[in-house]
Amino acid sequence: MANYTKRDEVAVIELNNPPVNALSFEVRSGLQNALKSAIDDQDVKCIVIHGKGKNFSAGADIKEFGAGTKQQKPWITDACRLADESSKPVVAAIAGTALGGGLEVALFCHYRIGTPSCRVGFPEVQIGILPGAGGTQRLPRLIGVNSSIDMITSGRHVMAEEAMKLGILDKIVTEDIIEEGVKFAKSVVGLDLAHRILKNRKIEAVSPKVFDDEISRVKKKYKGYIAPLFCLKAIQASVQLPYDASMEQELQLFQHLVGSNQAKAQQYAFFAERTSARWQLPTGANSQNASPLPVKTAGVIGAGTMGAGIALCLITSGIPTVLVEQDQKFLEKGIKTMEGDLRGSVALKKMTAEQAKKAMLILKPSVNFEDLHDVDLVIEAVYENLALKKEIFAKLDKICQPQTILCTNTSSLDIDMIAEATKRMDKVVGTHFFAPAYIMKLQENVYGKNTSAETVATVMALGRRIRKVPVLVGTCESFAANRMLHPYVTEALYLVEEGASPYEVDQVLEDFGMPMGMFRVSDLSGLDIGYKVRREAAKRQGIDLTLGTRFVNGERVCLLADVLVEKGRLGIKSGKGWYNYGSPGKKEAIPDPEVLDIIEEHCRKFGIKKQKISSQEILERMQLALINEGFRILEEGIVSKPEDIDVIWIYGFGWPKYMGGPMFYANEMKLKNVYRKICDFHQKYPFSIHWTPSKLLARLSETDLPISNWTSLINSNSKL
Ligand code: 3HC
Fold it and tell me: How far apart are CA 197 and CA 178, in angstroms?
């Protein structure tokens, strides 16, 4: 709803729908009524619109967007049209965020003022739609076509200072936004409003070439996403058509997107991220009843690629950090990497040179473990070796304060075994970052059997503070993310053995929307890493792994990647892997006939008959293998809800948001179809354990219930 009060001759309208004042039907109706009352009231000379609480408004209520349904009237434009027609000045007083429809309300006002910390933006593209209440028509009239294209197609938030420069804000005021709004509104009473009404403003002439170029840019930058292209169409309409006609065009494009599968998937992903933040431990402790400990300072051990990246996340979020390496030379190398990454961020305008400098000032590089004595939390990021990690944790346990939380960035080792090296097992937790740690948003937090709720709350809160998307998972071999990767990678190798080329496999995955095919990713990570992990695991199990091994414990294995490693093809770092890169470190991946010969030779050696494999089979086998594993992870309680898995794949491995994540994808395919296909593959490939159908999937597939019901079904029926 919207509250209506008066202060002298000023009408104050408060958008009231906590926590973010989403513009639900009630708010839109309330706003329309309040504007009408203010305009009709003879004593009112001017009007201020503000939001209750911290935010102006986060825009339309996303929950109201059922695919294909029309918005219930009054729509935002209906509610705001009165402002356009008002002879009394209307001022938007913005604190917190004015996003999407929230900003559109503000663009119907004659003036906009904001607090220094306010943010404005059109993030609609991120939920698969476009600004559908005049945003694509009114913003270009205010700030020009080019800046509008940038803001609307990127969805980025614009801070107060930039909003002022662009002309979105007329004034930056103090944080006391209602007082400031009233004062400002009084100061503009009696001024000519004609030029303040955006629909009356002339729009600059822009050649069609600008839009052609933008279409190419957007297609490349937001590959696969349709919403940014629709935004361009709507903005182009603002240039080509009279206001009323182009508003109609915007509405049509908006309605089309609202009903699209991409919008459904992206909106699911929006809420999945928030659902995933609500964690729960098997003890019943959860995000509602556990409080985080304060983290004022942190420490990172290891200045390699991961450690340096993690330290960068901490210092760029304002957390003073001690970075410890055992060797001065490695430490300096790590710092150089960090400085290089910061220069990159400055060049990309993600931060100012001043901010980059400030970040480095709160980094304390050290070769002395004792410097970690007073930090609140330490993240260990040395290489994957259990004995080494245990040694480090035993040492940290002695050096650090008793309340200090000790985190490990292990991607596979047992958290409980690491914790056993300390006398504070409740304060030991996994914080698994993804490479490159400074860029990738996933933070997979892993609790052990003794990790306390307070410790979990602390690392979950830390994740959000350092702009990551934290997900909580339980302990198991490789945890949730990499465990699901295993059948995906394995299936890719089987496909290559059976007749698909690595380049076909990658193409299918990239056409689906993955940022990189599996083989390109492997080259980027380095094939030698998997090689070492496989050998260490085999050694632990007493297995003699050689290039001639075809079965381990009755399960089919394919060691083609190891053949490449033994030929010196380690991936990008050696200039050759599954692809040829010309020279080490170069990024352009060129398919290599030599690799095809190696595969040919491998198949001849083992008498494997090659056949043509269709794109559909490639996609199905890779995706269903990981989806089946996802259901097993859910079944075992390693994650507590399907949204956790989707968030992991979106933010850890670049699963396209417009496909919602693997669990959402399975939901869209219908579980009975997914289950049937997995059973077929299980029959066809009996020696691949990853095709054993998940029991949970089997049971859920009988119910035909949508993904939103799975969690309560799992919780309410322990037999599932
Ligand atoms: N509609 C419905 N619910 C919303 C919402 C919206 N527009 N924005 C946020 N929420 C809900 C969240 O789901 C969350 O609910 P929960 O507590 O039950 O999980 C709650 O509000 C708080 O949100 P956050 O946890 O995200 O709070 P933050 O403080 O971290 O972030 C925010 C605040 C930056 C405003 C962030 O919520 C956000 O980005 N919201 C979406 C903004 C957006 O996409 N706006 C466009 C909407 S579409 C539109 O306006 C169409 C128009 O052009 C016609």
Answer: 23
Q: Is 123 in the pocket of ligand 1 (CB under 6 A)?
A: yes
Q: pLDDT tens digits, residue range 633-672?
A: 999 999 999 999 999 999 999 999 999 999 999 999 999 9
Q: Report if pTM > 0.80.
A: yes
Which one of the listed residues 124, 273, 325, 380 is annotated catalytic? 124
Active site residue 601: no
- The pLDDT of residue 69: 52
End-to-end CA distance of the chain: 42
Tokens of 26: 């009630």
Q: What is the pLDDT of residue 642?
A: 97
Cα–Cα nearest to 318, from 369, 263, 360: 360
Atom 10 of ligand 1, nearest CA residue: 20
Asked if 623 and 615 count as a contact pair (C-beta separation under 8 A), the reply is no
Q: Going by CA atoms, what residue is nearest to atom 26 of ligand 1?
A: 274
* Residue 124 is among the residues annotated as catalytic for this protein: yes
Ligand 1 atom at shortest distance from the alpha carbon of 75? 54
Tell me the residue type at 351: M
State how far the alpha carbon of 516 is from the alpha carbons of 34, 512, 600, in Å. Answer: 52, 10, 24
- 651 CA to middle of ligand 1, Å? 19
Q: Is 318 in the pocket of ligand 1 (CB under 6 A)?
A: no
Determine the angle formed by the axes of helices 642-653 and 615-635, rounding to 10 degrees. Answer: 130
pLDDT digits (tens, 9 = 90+) for 559-585: 999 999 999 999 999 999 999 999 998
**pLDDT per residue as tens digits for the range 295-347:** 999 999 999 989 999 999 999 999 999 999 999 999 999 999 999 999 999 99
Residues in contact with 250: Cβ distance below 8 Å, sequence separation at least 6, in sequence order: 130, 131, 132, 134, 136, 137, 234, 237, 238
Cβ count near 677 (within 10 Å): 18
Query: What ligand 1 atom has the least distance to the C-alpha of 254?
Result: 54
% of the chain with per-residue pLDDT over 70: 99
Check residues 207 and 394 and name the one with the higher pLDDT. 394
Over the stretch 463-493, which tens digit does the pLDDT of each residue have?
999 999 999 999 998 899 999 999 999 999 9
Question: Please, what are the domains in the chain?
Answer: 2-259 (3.90.226.10), 298-477 (3.40.50.720), 500-605 (1.10.1040.10), 618-638+656-716 (1.10.1040.10)
- How far is ligand 1, taken at its centre, from the CA of residue 22, in Å? 7
* CB of 131 sitting under 6 A from ligand 1: yes
Residue nearest atom 24 of ligand 1, based on CA coordinates: 274
- Average pLDDT of the residues of the chain: 95
CA of 54 to the centre of ligand 1 (A): 13
Q: Which two tokens stand for residue 667?
A: 């939901």
ipTM of model over 0.85: yes
Candidate from 26, 62, 279 with most ligand 1 atoms within 8 A of CB, to mutate = 62
| Residue with CA closest to ligand 1 atom 13 | 271
Joined tokens for residue 28: 């839109």
Percent of the chain scored above 90 by pLDDT? 90
β-pairing, 90-94 vs 46-51, is parallel
- Quick one: pLDDT at residue 70? 57
For the CA of 55, the closest atom of ligand 1 is: 35
Strand (E) or helix (H) holding 90? strand 90-94
